[in-house]
Amino acid sequence: MLGFSWVLLAFAATSVNAGRIVWDGSFNNYTTPADFDRWSWANQVGSYQWYIKGSGPTSRYLNVDAAYKNPAITSEQRGLKVTIDSTATWNSQMMRTELIPQTTANLGQGNLFYHFSVKRTNTNPPDPTLEHQVMFFESHFTELKYGVGSNPSNLGWYAGGQQRWSTPFSPDVWFNFAYDINFSSRTVGLWASTGGNPLTKVVENVAATTFTDSRDFHVGVLRIVNRNPPEDWYVSGVYVEEGPITTAIGSGAVPPPPPPVPTTVPPSSTVAPPPPPVSTSTPSGPLQTKFGQCGGTGYSGPTNCETGLSCVAVAPPFYYQCQ
Ligand SMILES: *[C@@H]1O[C@H](CO)[C@@H](O)[C@H](O)[C@H]1NC(C)=O
Ligand SMILES: *[C@@H]1O[C@H](CO)[C@@H](O)[C@H](O)[C@H]1NC(C)=O
User: Residue ranges of the CBM1 domain (predicted)?
Assistant: First the structure.
């Protein structure tokens, strides 16, 4: 019965020119925050890796509920509430609550569409005076940002470090996006819509240093600078599609065909992402103090750190910090 109705759904979707889903990051398999805790480096289960987080319990940073999804996405049972607060520091003084795809699929070749939807409300709203990096690749060749640019209260789309598009980040509105990435020609464009409206292409592809190793896409939020106010972000509809793009909201996240049975056990990786490069500049002039900014796009302050500290590229090319 179930299998049959999935087949019908899949047929309905493909008949409107849908691509193939190469990774399904819906939260249908996550009914409580504890489900994210089942993943570890030694036990890599589920759709997401969960290690870029603060020191508190998972329920402080991640929560799942039907009320947290875009209601137009009928194929999803629930969405994710992503919270950052003053305890959410990870590997730096930045607040980070981020999920990473747990997959052996190669999500970095051909023409792929990274679909997701984000929302905020007026409760625990994101602070427009602080820089946020949202739904990004570790190399930051494309990402959403909030709290920066000529209109910091806009949600802005960046490719190659430049803002290409932005929209007022109004409360209680679902903003749907697809990053349109051609890993062969190394370009990225943007599709967008609100609510249940179909996606339209809002920015044609531009050159970017496209790169992913399939663990590179960060579902969640990084806030630069440690301050107290807690913030909630809502995320729904995360999936990666091989073109042509599905523009309809809600019919896209068709369950993928069952994964092939692995014939070999993949080596269990305990390797964290490599440390960022350290600046080798020779100190001269004013020195920055610990956890102060020492470089990055648009930054014009001191670029050398006090003795014993290094200028670390924590979010290159945008933010470097003395540590
Ligand atoms: C989701 O749950 C279903 C049913 O338990 C299971 O068959 C499937 O493999 C799960 N998917 C993932 C990605 O864990
Ligand atoms: C992606 O780039 C490759 C190499 O330039 C090109 O052949 C292909 O047509 C592009 N795909 C799309 C969908 O534009």
Answer: 286-323
